[in-house]
């Protein structure tokens, strides 16, 4: 049994103890999918075919609104092994009665990326990597209007959110080529284009300590818990000191 497999199992159990009892809320098919992803992992950071190094194939995130914290957010998949991850995901997708556009399962431009959950909000998410991003189906290309695609990486990410198994949001993630004009402590940006929320920016951090003082007490408590794992804040979606989402590891 690999050390990396043990790491992902431990990380999952640690989150169950510290933040949210995921196992109680996931079906057997969903737990089997996660176990497959744990076993497929080849590195802590997997690089896509395009050479992009900042796709995180796993994430635990915490959405903070004032004193309220939602730590029921989890996502797992695979960058290095998309096909076996998809085969493990299909029973889960069927279980949620999700009807995916055949494009994402059949097109050579699309590769499965992962599944996600926001269990308190009763949301289920499916992710695909698409290259080139402008080769999307027509019902999504309107989200790209007004954006200079030549200023972004050729590979993008598409996400579908289902609330109580009904499609509630479609999103495209674009990744700017330039690292100019980033806030202090950030090394990269993802521009999330949502059909419900418009443009939302997420920042990959290389100096997370520069964001610490910008977080409210609930966020500070979360950071303190992750110090048990020697893990720093990886990515942040920030509105203000009372409203933000933290992504680990």
List keywords for this structure.
alpha+beta; 33% strand; 249 residues; 28% helix
Q: Strand percentage, roughly?
A: 25-35%
Structural class: alpha+beta
Low-confidence segments, given as residue ranges, are none
- Give the helix tally: 8
Whole-angstrom Rg: 17 Å
Q: Give the rounded overall mean pLDDT.
A: 94
Oligomer: single chain
Q: What is the global morphology?
A: globular
Instruction: Count the E strands.
Output: 10
Please summarize the sheet with the most strands.
10 strands, antiparallel, barrel
The N- and C-terminal alpha carbons lie at a distance of 22 Å
Percent helix range? 25-40%
Order the strands across the largest sheet as they lie in space: 1-2-3-4-5-6-7-8-9-10
Summarize the structure.
With 249 residues, this protein is an alpha+beta fold. The chain has helices at residues 3-18, 22-25, 28-40, 82-95, 102-106, 138-141, 209-212, 217-226, and strands at residues 58-65, 68-77, 110-118, 123-130, 156-163, 166-174, 186-194, 198-205, 235-240, 243-248. The protein is built from eight helices and ten strands.
Describe the overall structure.
With 249 residues, the chain is an alpha+beta fold. It has helices at 3-18, 22-25, 28-40, 82-95, 102-106, 138-141, 209-212, 217-226; strands spanning 58-65, 68-77, 110-118, 123-130, 156-163, 166-174, 186-194, 198-205, 235-240, 243-248. It is globular, with a radius of gyration of 17 Å. The mean pLDDT is 94.
